Amino acid sequence: MTTTYRRRYWRILSTSAVLLLLVSGCSPSSPGQGTDTASSGSQTDASNMLPDGKGVTMTADEARTEFFGLLDEIQAMAAGDWVNEDVPAGGYCNFQGTGNGKSFAGARTMGPLSATERETLRQKVSAFYESRGYKIQTLDKSTTTNNLLITTAFGPDGLSVALYTGDLGTIIDGSSRCVPDPEVAK
Fold first, then answer.
1. How do residues 99-158 score in pLDDT, each as one tens digit?
2. Can you give the pTM of this predicted structure?
3. Which CATH number fits domain 3-42+52-185: 3.30.2030, 1.25.60, 2.60.120, 3.30.1490?
4. C-alpha–C-alpha distance, residues 18 and 23, integer Å
5. Which residue from 27, 90, 141, 164 could staple onto 104, CB 3.0 to 4.6 Å apart?
6. 90 — alpha (psi -120 to 50), left (phi > 0) or beta?
7. Which contiguous run of DSSP H or E holds residue 30?
8. Where is the composition biased (Polar residues) (predicted)?
């Protein structure tokens, strides 16, 4: 594979990742979704109640910890030299239609895996997504120069994590839940 094709691949993959973040990471979910306090560890005091009075939301710190923890767990499923491209400072999102939200994004990249290793990783990650109750979507975006499968999980409140496994590399990326921005509350 020539350097030109690799550069094009990474450019396309980066663009796809950004589009995934824009489309799924910052849109508000339906009221009451993602309110499982057992999985989020949130407390049920009145300050954490959603605007509609249903359920509980996470703090920004909890959302950051949850999201980067997911990336860490998935990364640990495939040994190799991963490059961490996380954005720990976070960004803004549209929490419950108010525009006053915060979310976090990140990516982990590494070189290509063998076809067998890719399939094994994809199956492990799919099982991991299922165990957390996420909606899963797998897309085959293969071309003549790259066999690429994208396995994406959609969780509560805009949480999304995608695994890209292709001939040219492996990427984990996504965005955290959209939660109330603590800076706006001050």
1. 788 999 999 999 999 999 999 999 999 999 999 999 999 999 989 999 999 999 999 988
2. 0.69
3. 3.30.2030
4. 9
5. 90
6. left
7. none
8. 28-47
